[in-house]
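Human: Not sure, check this?
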Amino acid sequence: MTHEHILRAFDRDLESIQAAVMKMGGLVEQAILDAAQALETGDEDLADRVRARDREIDLLEEKINEDAAQLIALRAPAASDLRTVLTVIKIAASLERAGDYAKNMAKRTHVLARLDSVEGAAGALRRMARAVVEMLSHALDAYIQRDRALAEEVRNRDREIDQMYNALFREFLTHMMEDPRNITACMHLHFIAKNIERMGDHATSIAEQVIYLVTGALPEDSRPKADSVTMEGTGEA
């Protein structure tokens, strides 16, 4: 096989992997939006569908990893091409984690549907989720376009998500202090807010991988973050 044929085969295989990553991104974005909608409307059937569809996201990540490993083994890519393949693997991992957080949100919907609602909380969480989905969408666009400036914009928006999370945390704390009957619901809502904040971190990680892909180096400066507040005992499920 000539060098030109090898390059063409590499490009074809890489395009297939990238298509899988974009499909995965679309599924994750929809999962986040659906989980937030299920929470706001108390739609337990929609929450169940979010949880069921997480398996498709997991399988896509497994396929991307397998195909990427095969691509490296068969095509022996040059340094710049290898960087692209490794970036794809890391993007897929970030998407899979974001999908897990959407699934965790959906799990809490069943519990919250049986508790007294906390006024305005579900709508605020849905707005926060939409902001994260926009970050994810732009991060994936930045990858496809190799757009460093767009990736930097996504990275800078992480502070906005942190600020939304902090505002919600304080709101939940106020509700709990005003009426102890709100404590259980607010703890679940805080868990969801933290999950969404972590989704924002994964969108930012994708943006940073784009910067690495374009420049050959990860950003040297610390990721812009707002001062974080949290409750004890609200780790991942």
Q: What stands out?
A: The radius of gyration is 20 Å.
